[in-house]
Every structure is written in C-alpha cells, then in structure tokens.
Amino acid sequence: QVTNPPIDAIREELVTSLTSFLGRETNLFESPDATVLRLPHPILLQGDMQNLWEHPEFSLATSSISLLFPADMSLEQALRSLRERAARAVMGGAEILILSDLGLKKDLLAIPALLATSAVHHDLIRRGLRSKTSLMVESGEPREVHHFALLFAYGASAVHPYLALELVEKLDLRFGFTAIDPWRRSKNYRKAIEAGLLKILSKMGISTLQSYRGAQIFEALGLSKAFVEEYFSGTATRIEGVDILDLDEDLRVRHHDAFGQSISKLKDLGLYSWRKTGEDHLHTPSMMANLQKATRINSREEFAKYCQELDQGRINIRSLLEFDFEAHKGKAISLDEVEPVASIVKRFATGAMSFGSISKEAHETVAVAMNRIGAKSNSGEGGEDAIRYQKLENGDSKRSAIKQVASGRFGVTSHYLVNADELQIKMAQGAKPGEGGQLPGDKVDKEIARVRHSTPGITLISPPPHHDIYSIEDLAQLIFDLKNANEKARVSVKLVSEVGVGTVAAGVAKAKADAILISGYEGGTGASPWSSIRHAGLPWELGLAEAHSALTQNGLRNHVILQADGQLRTPRDIAIATVLGAEEWGIGTGALIALGCIMMRKCHL
Length: 605
Fold this sequence. Notes:
The protein is α/β, with parallel strands linked by helices. It has 2 domains: 247 residues, Aldolase class I (TIM Barrel, Alpha-Beta Barrel); 254 residues, TIM Barrel. Helices cover 37% and strands 12% of the residues. The strands form 6 sheets. It has a 7-stranded parallel β-sheet with strand order 11-19-18-17-16-13-12. A 4-stranded parallel β-sheet has the order 3-5-7-8, sandwiched between helices. Strand 9, helix 8 and strand 10 form a beta-alpha-beta unit. The longest helix is centred in the first third of the chain and has 22 residues.
C-alpha cells in the first residue's frame, strides 16, 4: 500500500497490457525452438475457439481435458484423475491444455473451473512440467470480473466463457438489444471484462497480464489449510473452514437444484443486495428501522433490539468469536475503575465521507453531532468550507476535527491544515483498495468546486496512488511536512486490511506517524464497484490483529495509536476490536443510517 502502490489503469494505459501467449515456455538464454500463439485478448470468443481448432498452421499440439465426472465418483477422486490425465497429455507433447466442462448433463457433474485450474497448475509445477504447456479454460462458470481474475491468477492463459457469451448473444429482444448485433454484444462483454481485469491488476501495481498470471495475489477465507495447501499451494490463509468433502456436498446440491426440477425463473440469491430468501446481509430492513427508531426516540430498548439482531447473526469473523466469561468469573471490577463514558466517546470518529459524495447538510450534521459529544468527524478528501471553522451562535461547531489528505489533494491548503486536530493520510480505502475515486462533473456545482478549488462541471479524479509516495521514506517526508504545517495536530495513516499490513504498519510507525487506521473490507461507501465491495480487501479483524502483533514484536506498539473501522455497529463489535488491539474506532455507515440514509448505494451518481 505504500512501497508497492497501485497504478492508474485509465490514465496510465500506455504501460498496461492484457496480451497473453499460448504454447510452451522456452529458456530465454537458448535459441527459441517453440512456436507460441499471441493473443491480444485473453477472453476468447466463439470465433477465436474455432480458429484455434481449424487452423493447423498454428502448429501447436492441443489437448482437451474434460472436467466432467460421474455422480458415483467423489470430487477428490475426480481431481486426482484430472491431474493424471493432464500430466499424461503434457508428457505426450500437448502445448495447450484446454480444461473444458462442455457437455454437462444430469448424470455428469463438473469440477469447479477455478479448483480444476489451480489443481492442474500446481500439479504440473510439482512434476516439473508446467513450462511445457499453457492452460486454457473453457467453462460456463466464469461470468463476472472476479471469476476471470481468479482463473488468470491461478495459471490460466486464456478463458472461453461459453455460457456467458451465449447468454449475451441471445438476450431477449424485449430488453432493447435489437440495435446491436450478437457479435457486437459479445465484443462489448469482453471489453467490459477486460477493463475490470486491468483495474484489478493495477490495484496491485501490476501492469501486464503476463506478470499477473499465476501470481495468486489472494487470501483464502473459510477454506481449510489442508485443502488450500493441496490445491491452491502458496495461497495465504489464516483461518480454517470447509474442506474437499464440504465442497463435494455443495457441488452435488447445486447440481441437483439445476437438474432436479423444471425451473421457470432463476432464484435471486441476494449476493449483492438483501433479499428475503437470499444470502444473509448485515444491512436488513429491520436492522435499519431499529437503528433509526432507537436514535430518533433515544430508546435503550429499541437500541437493544438493533444490537441483538446484529450480534446473533453469523455474517463476519467477529460473529464467530465468543467472550470467555467463565475464565474470569469472580474477577469483575467496579465500574468506578472503568474509563468513564465521557472519555470513551472521545475515542470515536466518523468514517471519511467527503462533501460532494454526501450532501452539505449531512456532512455538517455529522460534524456538529460528533463535536457535541467530544468525538471526531472526518472531512473526507473533498476539502472543507472555511466558514465552518467559526463556531455557531449556540456554541455548536461544524468543523471537522479530522482533515484528510488524499491522492487528489482537493481543498488541501495551509488554512485547511491548521484547522485540524488530526491530519489523516489516506493510502487506501477499505471498500475499494487501490482504486482511487471519481466525482462526476454533473455533481461538481459551484459550491463543491469552490471548496475543492476546482472548476464547476469538471469531473474530479483522485488517482489510485499518491504520486509523491512510492516508499516509506516518501511517506515520512509527507508526515514531516504535515507536522510542520500544524504542529498541534497528530498525523494518522489510513491502511486497508490485507496480508502483510503488519509490516506496512511497522514502516508507517517508523515514519513517525502518530496513529494508524486499519480499514476493513466491509466499508459501506456507496461509490464502490460491486465487485470491490464483495471481493476486495479483508476483514479488519485479521488486519488489526496482524498490525497489533507486528508493532508489538518490533517494539513500536507504544509509539502509535491503532484505530479500526469497517461496519462497527454494536458495543460487542467495539469490545472485540479493543481486545484485538484498537484504541479508537471509526463509524461511518451507522452514522449515516441514523441520520436517515436509506442505503441505495448510489452515492456515485
């Protein structure tokens, strides 16, 4: 996040490439004796597949390996058979292996495409055969950007998503697709997927697909370590979960659902939005109603209902943790020995929400509320109107205690910096790490433009990286400059929970930061892409524990304050964050819902 920052895939497109190659990889120091097929697009359309099979001038030996297996065979046995068949094909001279699940029917199941790809990829590495062939995936599974990103990260050189392409080509004419021919639809779909792929590469500072292929820049959550080591060797995993037997059972349930009965309408699984019969979500209508009612009538009873609904759920890692009260039975202390409420509330802060992403009224209301209780509100990266630095007649203040310094530097002036109790350097954002931000031109009215020192109607872009921070030394320089601009303010650095954030946190502490914020992937920003909200970042529980441990081991823990945010909602959440090392806590979405936000997730419009 600091030493390997993201790149801007849109404005630095010149240095990016999705070009892929099929064929064997030869020694660079020897004369090349192998033919390779250059693919300008790693997503293959139907015509591309036909060319691959029908044109012998490519002179590449190709072998198709079926991912299908009979119902009387276990998934583990099917994987063992698949790896043996793939190894024999490579030893027989196959320069391209096509892993295909074509022909799926009621009495044949299919090995999940990602599992098959990674299993073959790592088995060929162990046998010393991986460089002799390239892997292509022909599957009906991949349809979203994340699916393709995983396949390439675990060894695939090309993907043919036949079912997604067939669906795109046969879209119902009632939806207004008459003006676009099927071939153009397929190309548009491929263009969208490849744009998403490029964004994922750029988040990690990778500019070419060739560098990304096989990189495995993911962490497994909810999979057993034995399973990950066998089929996804080298992938980071810190908590246990389901194994091959559980996946086998799940596969058969889904297969039965697909072939067991006639389906007139596909079920909405609620993967992205709450549905009554879909996947569990943190945000539910009853949860929002209970919170808004509790805050509006100031009722402890209603707030207890709200907390009970959230605490009884099993949606995140902290919901699986339990306090060991029995071990401390009889050791209770008096409330007089506990930090008083008036002091505890000073440890709260709001999430960074900029003026422009939310309205002026909402932004100022949050600031007034936090100032009244002695907590801190965060200006976000959109600057702040200087008139808010003056107190109101009734003694209230609209001034945000925390002023954020982000990659766009919007509204960052000397006057802005000196009117802060804390200056926060945003290195990344929990809900969309490595992506930066964008405020559409039609939202940039005269007032927003004035506060951000820009021009009305012009789209404002926060680039993914800070273009003056490419090392801990660069970060230390900015921290030094900010402390000189406002010697009374503490300087904090916002990081996203991920594998290795502990090492980054240690570097940030050595750069003389006063506080470190570990932001979880559950951040509720409505301006984040759906794929990032669901798949990018990690729970703050993991990042916070790692940062606390790394700082302690390096003798730096007493030098910085640790803060956590990412859907902290109830006293139980705050207590768990504290046990894991947090001294302060950030609350963003909860504050907005209490204010009246209805969670449309349309903040980008």
